[in-house]
Amino acid sequence: MEFVNPEGLRLDGRRATEMRQFRAEIGVVSRADGSAVFEMGNTKVIAAVYGPREVQNKSQQINDKAVVRCEYSMANFSTGDRMRKPKGDRRSTEISLVIRQTMEACILTNLMPRSQIDIFVQVLQADGGTRSACINAATLALADAGIPMRDLVTSCSAGYLNSTALLDLNYVEDSAGGPDVTVGFLPKLDKVTLLQMDAKLPQDTFKNVMELAIEGCKAVANYIRDILMENTKRLECRRGV
Amino acid sequence: MRGEVEIPLNKTQKLRLERALEKLESISSKANLSDASVTVADEISVNYEDGVLQGHGTSEMNGRLVATVCGVVERVNRLVYVRALRSRYKPETGDIIVGRVIEVAPKRWKVEINFSQDAVLMLSSMNLPDGIQRRRTAVDELNMRSIFEENDVVCAEVRGFQHDGSLHLQARSQKYGKLDKGQLLKIPPYLVKKRKQHFHHLNDYGVDLILGCNGFIWIGEHVAAVDDMVVDQIIKSEQPDSKAGDSVNSDEQEQSYTSLDIRQNICRMANAVRVLSSLGFMVTMEAIVEIVKLSNSKKFDIHDMLGAEFYVVVAEEEATRRSSSSKKR
Amino acid sequence: MLQSRSFVKKTKQGGVRKIVREHYLRDDIYCGAPFCKVCDVSGAKLSDAPSPLLVVDTNVVLNQIDLLENPAIDDVVVLSVVLQEVNNKNISIYNRLRSLCSNASRKFFVFSNEHHRDTYVKDMAGETPNDRNDRAIRVATRWYQDHLGGAVHVLLLTNDRENKRKAIEEGISAETVESYVKSLGQPELLDLIVQPPSEDVKMEDVEDLRPSKRKVIYTEHKPMSEITSGLLRGIFHQGKLRVNRYNPFEAYVGSESIGDEIIIYGRTNMNRAFDGDVVAVELLPQDQWQGETSIAITNEEDEEEDVHLPPSSADDAPRATNLVQGSTGAANSPPSRPSGRVVGIIKRNWHSYCGSVEPMPMPAGSGGVVHALFVSKDRRIPKIRIQTRQLDNLLDKRIVVAVDKWDVLSRYPSGHYVRTIGVIGDRDTETEVVLLENDVEFKPFSSQVLACLPPLPWSVSSEDLANPIRQDLRHLQVFSVDPPGCKDIDDALHCTALPSGNFEVGVHIADVTNFVHPGTPLDDEASKRGTSVYLVERRIDMLPKPLTEDICSLRADVERLAFSVIWEMTSEADIISTRFTKSVIKSSAALSYVEAQARMDDSRLVDPVTTDLRNMNALAKIMRQKRIDRGALTLASAEVKFQIDTETHDPLDIGMYQIREANQMVEEFMLAANISVAQKILDHFPQCALLRRHPTPTKEMLEPLIRTASAVGLQLDVSSSKALADSLDRAVGSDPYFNKLIRILATRCMSQAVYFCSGELSAPEYYHYGLAAPLYTHFTSPIRRYADVFVHRLLAASLGINRLPDVFQDKAQLTNISDNLNYRHRNAQMASRASVELHTLIYFRNRPTDTEARIVKIRSNGFIVFVPKYGIEGPVCLSKEGGWLVDEQQQRIKKSDNSIYYGVLQTVQIHMEVVEPQPNRPKLQLTLIEDTYMTKK
């Protein structure tokens, strides 16, 4: 199938190195300590953070740092076919783990000993790149919850189809079966915290694809930073003196 | 700020709200408040030669000071810290807090105070109901539930962190203790400013207002306090004899009926707090009283106080208030 | 990089699901006109001239692609909505359109109207997708008109009346294709226009001319829904229709659902299906299953079999032949092969065909539109009805024709003229036909491809010498042995006696991959061509000439880059060690086979090259013997060689290709090198090595060989390749040619060796039957075979010299490549055979000849002879009137008076002459010279 036509346009009209439109909103769950919605095109994810709070299961308590937990789920209505999405299936367990590890790497857990942080992410609409969107939403929610972090983790996917490196794959491109690289990135520290790839990719092509994904992460980071800054300023000036 | 999403506004209300909020923003930007705002991993500019003490919400990365949370940079002499806005409560010794009892454990109560752990209120750091200072006996331990039960709302003071990292409270004063006949409100702690006075007796309304530093706010029927001075003396002297009868009497009084007026006042005040917090305005005694007055003067019903119109009115009022106060300055 | 364009959601209804896709609209899509002041003109493709801009609609593209491909049509704006529709409807036309758009010399510009902010149209309620697309086309045309202002005339070409009417209403100038082409004033272009179905009236006029034929000839095809359900229920069977190369009225459909081939007899049962179409077939009731023997002769239009080259393998041979013999053996048992008829066509395989117009008298009032019948060169294709205004011009020409449709009412499909190749019988024309028929790309290399070549004159640079991966072997005495006049020398040898008594033998192959890098246009072109094609009088190169004849050719006395395989061998030809390296060599002599042979035979010569040659020959003989002991078959083919007049390029003489010891010697080392390389690359890349296998023939495939052999009293053991080789060795008949004949017959029973990717098959299937080698690949001719280029890259990667190119990661692509290589390889063979046939015909045109021939098969109406001297095969007809009786079971033919009889493999005298039964269709006719003397003897 032709994913990039000779004119350089993808199926949805983007060029190879363009991302979908993204949008974020903070504070969407009133009961949570921090929450956010993150949209990348038609992919829409909501994240809620609770904590740091008392550890529920005492046996999991760690005396010198916080426990980070994550639960990923997909809403029944998130895909074209309205199907009951089983909880705790392999895929969501895996993604939960991925998000947990990625977020744990940037949270300064040692500052919150004997406590636990719960991250709940739910996919409201799935159109490819849910993993990335989840991580971005979780980052925003954590920042909103005022949890100290080393840096903002941002994530973006990139793939390689029709001998072209494509940024931010949507569902059609994602399900083409080509290589698909999801990168989690700490923009200020310039470090990669997550790297997942399906299928095989030659080394130097991989390098290009990954660099593209990192560029995408940086773009997301700039956006997230703007959103957070705006939010912080607004809170501060609303609060008054 | 959460309210923005939830409260349905009509077009004119939206416009008015926007204008009011813009006004607020212009005021604060005049005051150069926002320059100090940082987000996660933003660098904080400091003069390293002077020597810097890293405070909360900061961390060193590659020899530079960066923020680890979103918030406002505050500098106190050499100490640089980031005051996080939206985050859980950070206890400091001496803070007056309101909390809810979660668990009754041997010799202690676990109290939820919006901190990363549950706080501990030891039986020993608690004035006994009889007011006598003495060793706690096994009988006292058995009767702990008669003092506080699960889900009771209590007021206490932060005693400090123990060496094992747990947070301890104390309630060795008559002003602390169980709270009832009122409402507990939870708001983000950054909206409560630490002040000398957190207990307010609002005579006009017959209401007690406790602004817990942890963002828990108590509004309840006024309780005539036992003479504070006397209590202090009792703690010092630790005399075994007590005036048990007094407290029993007051208990009996408390069982009594609360008048409709006072109940309405409580609700009005609670709604004032809700409006303030949903707008993200600082919650102080003055602000609350002002909102209550506003609602009375504009003839808003109690339940209308949570409606869109009042929401906008409060925002407009706050805008004018702040602009006038900034002009004065 | 963050685009902030507004986007519109596009919903597609498919089943119950609602799919929502984003659709970004952009403002950076340009109009492609170089004089545009608003747009970025760097990508502009349209011409500067004020010629009108053409906007074509989907149906124009679908129907008139041949017209669009004509260089007279230019400055075309192809809208993305049109591309999309074409892609959905016909992928091959889509590909043709795409290649037009990417062709730098054609001014076709793709305008992505669907993603342009101003030309995107939203679906309106109650609008069909077709109407919506038509509207989109009009909106885009309108946009062009407004955008370019008065600078140029924008013309919408559409044959849809409604669309045209609306366009004119909206103030867009629109025309039908026909009126536009007429306005161009080039009458020959009009022939290219496909008659739109709306002009049925005209067609009926034509049919009326022959009222007898005005009836339904074929049954209607079943609707697709019925076919799908029929396939599901097992009533219909799906498969690709393959028409018998030797009998166009017989076709086979290989069906997976019944695990056998379904035979389809006659045009009526074929029901308008073409060769290569994917069809749905319904089985006929068993009592209608026919034996095929009778059919071959009784069919009305059966053309006689031509004289042709003998098939070189089972793949080329006529399918029915072995079956005939198989069923005759089983006496009168009812035919067990299922027959069927086509009920529907799932996918058409229509493309353009080469051929000529059937001779017909010029109708009165010539110059007007004439309907003619086109006869394809490929006999599998039925005659095609075309419309032309230039009949007198076309009668003696080879032309290309494309098929448009085939109604139930018409006996023949209708098509349209595409272009003229040249005069019939002209050698260049016929050669081009051969190339077109076999899908051989023979256009000169494009400038992009040539740009990939290193500048000439080229010589080995100091960097090459300094390169640590490249070993300097210039000190070695390297020489090459090739056919005389060979310019693309891709292999050279050396052989040094070591002090230990062993020999160091090296095979040096031109290092083509040093110049052909993956992903370059040069590489793409080579991989598309797959192989060089050798015709009698010309060669169609896979790589451009500078590479094949100079830079890569291992000529004498120049330094060249090579990829070397070097063995240490004992004098018993046991390989002690093998090593592979890139190298620099300097060939000391480029010998021809004849020269090499002469040197070896001339005992007076003791120069170093000759000594090496003799040593190598000795080794080669041992290796050959070992190979034969392992069970390798010595197969034979009837290769012929033409002597071509240097001036006229006409063949002067034909003769069998003579194989010398020197040939065998070189061949032996090449085989050894290929096997060594195959081993190496498979070890390193067990999943993606490109190997070559030769499947073990099945018993059924060898059946005709055994039958023929037993007819002359010869028992062949076919249980293994070793057994077969031995029994072939024993098959020594009365004359020296007998053995070769048997071997030729054996060869044609086997299927061809094929390339494959090691990941596709399991290890036992890698076996090369003919060579009795567990592993084999092609490494030694990278100049003329792409497979070797591929293997060079694999070998280099296994040595750590290069990184493995990306394609090796992609299994599907690897399979595609190996399939393409097989296809190209086969086509190249077919093309060279066709070229030889063509030249044979030219040769005999003025030379009626009497010669000796061997009977290879007895048929009901005569026998088939093989002419060893000219390497051709053809039928000799013996009519019943001549008093001949055929005994097919005994494989004998005799005169009714028992005076003469012929058996298989017997020698006969025949007369060969070119006759022209129909004008412009010359053929070689073989007739028997009854020679009583011969038979008595």
Automatic annotation (TrEMBL), chain A:
One Gene Ontology cellular component annotation held by this UniProt entry: cytoplasmic exosome (RNase complex)
Key words of the record: Cytoplasm, Exosome
Biological process per Gene Ontology, one example term: nuclear mRNA surveillance
InterPro entries found in the cross-reference section: ExoRNase_PH_dom1 (IPR001247), ExoRNase_PH_dom2 (IPR015847), ExoRNase_PH_dom2_sf (IPR036345), PNPase/RNase_PH_dom_sf (IPR027408), Ribosomal_Su5_D2-typ_SF (IPR020568), RNase_PH (IPR050080)
Compartmental location: Cytoplasm; Nucleus, Nucleolus
Pfam short name (any one): RNase_PH_C
Highest classification ranks of the organism: Eukaryota, Viridiplantae, Streptophyta, Embryophyta, Tracheophyta
Record has Cytoplasm as a keyword: yes
Identification of the protein by name: OLC1v1038443C1
GO MF term list: RNA binding
Family named by the database record: Belongs to the RNase PH family.
The Exoribonuclease phosphorolytic domain, residue ranges: 18-148, 151-216
UniProtKB/TrEMBL annotation, chain B:
Protein source organism: Oldenlandia corymbosa var. corymbosa
Highest taxon in the source lineage: Eukaryota
InterPro entries recorded: Exosome_RNA_bind1/RRP40/RRP4 (IPR026699), KH_dom_type_1 (IPR004088), KH_dom_type_1_sf (IPR036612), NA-bd_OB-fold (IPR012340), S1_domain (IPR003029), S1_RRP4 (IPR048565)
Domain S1 motif: 92-172
Keyword presence, rRNA processing: yes
Membership in a protein family: Belongs to the RRP4 family.
Protein name as annotated: OLC1v1007412C1
CDD domains linked to this entry: KH-I_Rrp4_eukar, S1_Rrp4
GO cellular component, one term: nuclear exosome (RNase complex)
A GO MF label: RNA binding
Compartment(s): Nucleus
UniProt entry keywords in alphabetical sequence: Exosome, Nucleus, RNA-binding, rRNA processing
A GO biological process held by the record: nuclear polyadenylation-dependent rRNA catabolic process
Alphabetical list of Gene3D superfamilies matching this protein: 2.40.50.100, Nucleic acid-binding proteins (2.40.50.140)
Automatic annotation (TrEMBL), chain C:
Region annotated Disordered, chain positions: 299-340
Subcellular location: Nucleus
A Gene Ontology term for the protein's cellular component: nuclear exosome (RNase complex)
The keyword S-adenosyl-L-methionine is assigned to this record: no
Needed co-factor(s): Mg(2+)
Protein name per UniProt: OLC1v1010476C1
This protein's UniProt keywords: Exonuclease, Exosome, Hydrolase, Magnesium, Nuclease, Nucleus, RNA-binding, rRNA processing
Keyword Nuclease: yes
Family the UniProt entry places it in: Belongs to the RNR ribonuclease family.
GO molecular function, one term: endonuclease activity
Annotated Gene3D superfamilies: 2.40.50.690, 2.40.50.700, 5'-nuclease, Nucleic acid-binding proteins
Highest taxon, organism lineage: Eukaryota
Residues in PIN domain copies: 52-165
Leader peptide range in chain numbering: none
A GO biological process held by the record: rRNA processing
Biased composition (Polar residues): 322-334
Principal location listed in the UniProt entry: nucleus
Residue intervals of the RNB domain: 470-801
Family annotation (SMART domains): PINc, RNB
